[in-house]
Structures are given as structure tokens and as C-alpha cells.
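Now for a specimen:

…
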Amino acid sequence: MAQTAKVVIPSTKREVEIPTGLFINNEFVPSADSNELIHAINPATEEAICSVVAGSGKDIDLAVAAARKAFITTWGKNITGFERSRLLNKLADLIERDQQILAEVESLNNGKPVKIARDFDIGDTIQCLRYYAGWADKIVGQTIEVDNQKKLAFTRHDPIGVCGQIIPWNYPINMWAWKVAPALACGCTIVMKPSELTPLTALLLSKLIAEAGFPPGVVNTIPSLGPVGGAALSAHRDVDKVAFTGSTATGRKIMEAAAKSNLKKVSLELGGKSPQLIFESADLDQAANWACLGILYNTGQDCTAGSRLYVQDSIYDKFVALLVQKAKELVIGDGFDEKSGGGPVVSKVQYDKVWGYIEDGKAQGAKLALGGQKRSGKGYFVDPTIFTDIKQDMNIVRDEIFGPVLSVGGFKTEEEAIALANDTTYGLGAGLHSNDANQCMRVSSALEAGTVWVNQYNLLNNNVPFGGKKQSGIGRELGSYALEEYTSVKAVHWNFGEKLEWPL
């Protein structure tokens, strides 16, 4: 097949040329042995956008070989931090130049509103690349006193090597940057596997990698099915580290494959069933706004979605009424409509999964305060849905739904609120709303989550670490902590004065 497709954005009539081949050594190439295609679908219309090559295990081998060659010749320890910084900044400039085009393609393939993709996802991506560009020439070790008269030791933070990176479909551009930026800043090379549901913007970003001037093989992109490309990267004996964002079930498989192959380093950002606690002292209007953002942003397709809400009994009825009123105000519609604050869920499979949970919630006796009715017509649209009268053993309370479905319960005491919040196998995010400063300190300390928000929710910063506890993953992304995921520490012992007498 041709290595490009011309796609017309329906609402703007803009024609975008999208690469459809595999990106290896800065070129778009056909598969070595696969005729299989990935069909990108517009979730707002259910129509095909275009098709791209589905990479095979052999294609992963070729991409890994290209990444290894680059690592030992033109990248890795063969390039200065200053040059890595310059290239990362150049890449950020190119993404900023193409921000609107990338946002339109993201909306077309993922469904999210163009304004959200452009101003939030891609705006944050540009900042992320520039943040790590600032780190690229500041990755330093320590000089350690051993014996000032005879010897010293020092450490080097070496790039870990070839990295397999597997990203999800909910934030295709943003998750690409979270993985790529720290890896390149440290001097690693990459084989990227985007989600088979949303491969298009990863291919456009690969085009910008070449335009920015990165040496061939530094970043390679292999769209493929998860059980093919993801499995091949996880089990590959010449991959030094694998980074994955996605479901806990897939994370287990990746960790097992990494252990059984070459015991490669693994970082996992997995699922969540994150709680928000609303205490009686909170600013209820603001708390309702943040609670809506927590579950409705990105149509609930967010690992940290605040999908369990617990409200103190003294304000329960008042707060639920306010919450329902505010949730009704969000427009879920076509991503190219400026009025839309959310779009469809990403696929038919996801749509059916979300509706399965909604029907399950009804069957198990939860009360619908909002939503729960299907729309007619095309598109995988799910309107905001709020359940009350929940019990802790309900599936809508225990399982990650990944849609705009909120479970609301009550509590009497602070201790009860903490126990309810921590009653989950996950530990990615948590939030609390209170104007009692002492309570904020007590509860934020007691919540078992990698990120805790106080009087806000779901906002992240590139200089603040992010990651999970329990079954929400291991390792950290963002901030200086992410650099640790892409470096290995080498200790060098230097003897300049001690003489060894022999035999012992």
C-alpha cells in the first residue's frame, strides 16, 4: 500500500497527509512480512478515516535493531546533553507550529474536542518537551569521599538503552510526550507502539522527529496490535526497558514477559478507581465543579477519573442536587463543535463496556440521579451518568469503567471517609475538599494514592511526579523522578594511592 493517506477534515475541509507506514530509521516503510492493516475509525461518526500498516514481530525486531545501532553510534553517550536539549526544543517548536492540525487529527481519531486537544493535551505536550529539554544537560552523578589520601568514587547516570514504549488511546499525543521526552533527555533510544485505536497522531509526530533532525533510529514507531507489538517489545531480549500506560491486566502480562526474557526494567501506569471526598466545610460550588471535572473530563476516559464520590451526610442531598445540575451543563458532542466539552468514547468496544456497567448498576440496585439513557443515531456517545444509593460491593464501585459514570455514596465521620476511599485495589489518584486545614493534612496523609489533590482534581504539572500505588502501577512519570526510569547508576571506584600487598 502507499505510505501516505490524504485525509480531509470534514468540518474544516483541511486536507492532511498522514503517513501510513512503519517509521524506522527516520523513514516510513512497509512491513517486512505483514499485510495486515489497522483501520482508524472516527468515533463520532463510526466511519473509517484511513488505514495504516499493522506491524509484526519481525518489524519490532527491525525497529529494535535500528534503535540499538543509534544508541551505540549517534545517540546514547555519543551526543552531548546540550545537543539533546536543542533537538527536544526544536521538536517542541514544530509541534507548536502544527498544533491546530495535530488537534484536528487527534479529534478525528480519538473523538475529544479540538479545543481540548489543542489547548490542553498538545499545549501540555509542548511544555513537557521543553521541560525535559531543560534537564538534558543537567543529568549528573556524585563524587563520593572514600579516602582522600588514596581513592575516591563517583557515579554516572548512564542512559539505560533501548526503550520499548507502549501508549494508550485516551491521550495519544500527551502520553507520547510523557514517554518520549524523559527518555530522549537521558540519551535513550525508542521503539514506540501507539494504540491500535489511535495511531494517526503518533505517525504525524514521527514525521516531526525526522524534521527536527534527530538521527535515524533514535525514535521508531510501529503501529501494531497489542498482542503482537506490545508482546514482542515486552519479551524482546535487546530491549533494556519497557514503559507502559494502560490496563492493570495488560500490565501484569508485560511485567511477566519482561521477567521471563531479560529481566528488563519496567515502569507501569495502570488503572484506577479514584475517590473524591467532600467534607461539610468545603466550598460546595467549587467542589461540585472539581467533582464534575474529575469524572467528565475526557468523557471519563482517564486513569485518574474521580469515579467514586463520597459526601458527608450533613450536606449529602444539597451537594448531589448541585452536582447533577452542573453535570447537565456539559455538552457531550462532536469534537469539532466549539460548544462540546466532551466527545464520544473512543470505540464500539469501549461504548459497549461502559453501557454494560450502566445496566449492571441499575440491575444491582443503584439509583440513577442522572443519565443512563442511550442516544439514537451514529457515534459512541455516552452522556454523564450519576448513580446514588451505592454499596461497596457493586461492580460500578469496584471496577474501572473508563467512561462518564460516577458512583456517589455518603459518610458520617472522617475515619469512615478514609476507609471508604482506601477500600480499593487501586491507588492512582484521590481527592478531598475541605476548608479545615488540619483535616486536609490528616486526610491527604492517610489516602493511599500516588497523587492526592486538595480542593482541586485531575490537574497535573510537568515538574511534579505522577504514578500509582497498589495495582495502579510502579515507577513515576513527570518531574525529575521520571529521569530515574531511563538511567542506570554506575559507581566508579578510583584508586590513586593504595598499594595492594600480595599474597593475602
